[in-house]
Amino acid sequence: MTCASFATAALPSMIGVAVGRPTNPREAGHIGPASTLSAPVQPRSEAVRGDVAPFGHGIFQQPWWLDAVAPGDWDAVEVVEDGEIVGRLPFVRMRQFGLTILGQPSLAQFLGPWVKPGTGEADARPDREDEILAGLIEALPPHDVFFQTCHHSMTDCRAFHRRGFSHSNQYTYVIDGLDDHDRIWAGFRENIRREIRKAERHVAVRSPEDVETLVALNRMTFERQGMAPGASEDVIRRLDAACKARGVRRIFVAEGADDAPHAALYLVWDDASAYYLMGGSDPSLRNSGAMSLLMWEAIKFAGQVARRFDFEGSMLRPVERFFRAFGGRQVSFPRLTRGRTLKGRVALLAYDLRSARKRLRANG
Amino acid sequence: MGASSILFALLAFAGALHLLFGGVLASTAADEIQIALVAFVQSSEVCADSWLLGTVIGSRKDDRADNWAGRIDPSSTLSAPAQSRSEPIRGEFVPLGHALFEQPWWLEAVAPGRWDAVEVVENGEIVGWLPFVRKRRFGLTILAQPELTPHLGPWVKPGTGEVHTQSQRENEILCNLIAALPKHDIFLQSFHPSITNCLPFYWHGFLQESCYTYIIDDLSDHDKIWHGFRENVRGHIRKAQRRVIVRPIEDVETFIALNRMTFARQGVSPAYSADTIRRLDAACGARGVRRIFLAEDADGAAHAALYLIWDSESAYTLMSGSDPRLRDSGAISLLRWEAIKYAGQVTRLFDFEGSMLQPIERFVRAFGARQVPYPKLKRGLTLKGQLALLAHDLRELRNRSVA
């Protein structure tokens, strides 16, 4: 069971090593070449230079989060109105295949733009939003390819579509109403309930402060699947330190009688939602049902800190099947892509077709 | 087609081939490139898919000659649970589908003898259904939707029981429908907005893109709808009300004349033939699911006309047309308003069939409609299909950046 990073599953080759400007964004305080700036867009302002931004669709858009997962490689464009940030779009700049790619780091599942919720006549709101998003798009530094998945609260992607972006759907599963454990339990597929009952007899769940057990199990999982890990051990450690300092994470580990770790799960949360960020299990102990038990424990715990549990989705068939078994509601979130130059367009189309060919061969 | 475009095409294919096949060009691929390249260089229609799908004029005869209609090739790829069109579906009306576009009578009107469907049957009951039209173009077999049919795609019988059981069942049915599709190079369809789960298509190598239409949800409150219009639209309507009167007509020829004028003014060949309109009108008229609104002035001059169709769920402005000489009378806005009011008597929603083109979008949005996404699915199943899709996408991108 792995879902360490959705991004790695979705974009195995698009997301390479981040080699953007090695400036610390907090020191830099400005965005790329001035030439791309349009009037209403300004360099990153004081409000954002701090640790916590008063906006965004969740934890992944926070400066401290991006500092942890992409130190020095991320940046953001903004639209400021009357000294207030009304629009923002963070990104990571990467080089791959000779292309400049504005993407997102692994372990930052939902990025994309944020627009301050509008007031006023409903009729005028779409136009205002469109203007803000247009400002953000225009302010993006030069690139060949733009490639991000957004939070599911971003439902209107027309502003992007009009400007040459493609919008496609990806899927996650969410569980609402976290107070009602009975209802959630009843919503699990029968085999999940059975696995959890079995696991409860064989393993004990504890919440260590130390991330190393999770890192080890997470690496094992990738190894078993013959996949390159989405995030390096260093990134996980740095992110854990950042989350721990802010009290927004909990690690769940299932251990057998001899203290052997069977599986581990990493949960993070913001005000609105708790996210299953990553996990891992010992391949030799996979049928102990420990991962299902951890998921159940994490869902129960999530009710104490957030309103919703988000599986962070997966387009991979077996992973999707596992998530779906927990009875969550399917929610789509947008993937926005754009090839801005000829080579960017060709690369993007070829990438999409190539990944489609792979899926065709695997499932067709 | 200028030299730069051809260079663009060559470059694109070189790059694409390199990325797709790791730079190794199999000799069989050479022919395919030729086909795709020729396809790419031909024609310059702006309409997104018309290049790949062709227009109905001229292609219908070829399709008929194919002589496959009405049933799936016996040597096709059908898997056990999915079957070709069965007796209950051969009939007039099927108790399934998201909209009237999936009804056999509709498909028979817009694509006589050229459509087919795969289905999944459980205990003698159809629980999944995916209609399509098979087209031949550039030596490619394309499964698509007919003209004048904004949405097609699969239908799965709503299940009961727990959420995960239902979604598991839905995924299985969709997977079976996909597996049952006859041999093709390309699949290209716009699905109905109520189809939200495209995961099984993704797993089977389809690419999905979201497009938008515009919907008015509450047709009962005319005041609210009226005030949802932009001021300029209300102005147009008031102006038109002084110059023209709106009445329903039974004569489709008057409509066709205005509709053809619109295409002529835009300098594009019509996306659908007058014969198709006549056939569709006969089918819709017989079932009482259409109304033609005509705006004419005191002298009896026809300014504009609008063709409204509906099912139990939604009404659609399927076509319209106007006399270019009388375009500034605001008649089209008035017709839309009258159609919206009328739709409230026969159905629940009003669907503008919104365009992704911004000028039309602004016009439609001015009517206070809500934007609703619908998925567009495409797949290249063979190498030549994949290359043609690539060419199609590149054209679309180029057209969009030109626009």
Topology:
The complex is a heterodimer of chains A (364) and B (403).
Chain A: H1 6-10, H2 25-28, E1 41-42, H3 46-49, H4 63-69, E2 74-81, E3 84-96, E4 99-103, E5 114-115, H5 125-139, E6 145-149, H6 158-162, E7 166-175, H7 181-187, H8 190-202, E8 204-206, H9 212-225, H10 233-246, E9 249-255, E10 261-269, E11 273-281, H11 290-305, E12 308-310, H12 317-324, E13 329-339, H13 342-363
Parallel strand pairs in A: 4-6, 11-12
Antiparallel strand pairs in A: 1-2, 2-3, 3-4, 3-5, 6-13, 7-12, 7-13, 8-9, 9-10, 10-11
Chain B: H1 3-21, H2 27-41, H3 50-53, H4 56-65, E1 82-84, H5 87-90, H6 104-110, E2 115-122, E3 125-137, E4 140-144, E5 155-156, H7 163-180, E6 186-190, H8 199-203, E7 207-216, H9 222-228, H10 231-243, E8 244-249, H11 252-266, H12 274-287, E9 290-297, E10 302-310, E11 314-322, H13 331-346, E12 349-351, H14 358-365, E13 370-380, H15 383-402
Parallel strand pairs in B: 4-6, 11-12
Antiparallel strand pairs in B: 1-2, 2-3, 3-4, 3-5, 6-13, 7-12, 7-13, 8-9, 9-10, 10-11
Helix pairs in contact in B: 1-2, 1-15, 2-15, 6-12, 10-13, 11-12
Word description of this protein:
The complex is a heterodimer of chains A (364) and B (403). With 364 residues, chain A is an alpha+beta fold. Chain A is 37% helix and 24% strand. Chain A folds into two domains: 6-169 and 332-363, Aminopeptidase, CATH 3.40.630; 173-330, Aminopeptidase (3-Layer(aba) Sandwich). In chain A, helix 4 runs antiparallel to helix 10 (233-246) and helix 8 packs across helix 11. Chain A is globular. In chain B, 49% of the residues are buried. Chain B is of the alpha+beta class and 403 residues long. Helix content of chain B is 43%, strand content 23%. In chain B, strands 1, 2, 3, 4, 5, 6, 7, 8, 9, 10, 11, 12 and 13 form a 13-stranded mixed sheet that branches. Chain B folds into two domains: 54-211 and 376-392, Aminopeptidase, CATH 3.40.630; 220-347, Gcn5-related N-acetyltransferase (GNAT) (Aminopeptidase). Chain B contains 15 helices and 13 strands. The radius of gyration of chain B is 22 Å and the shape is globular. Chains A and B meet through helix 6, strand 7, helix 12, strand 13 and helix 13 of A and helix 1, helix 7, helix 8, strand 7 and helix 14 of B.
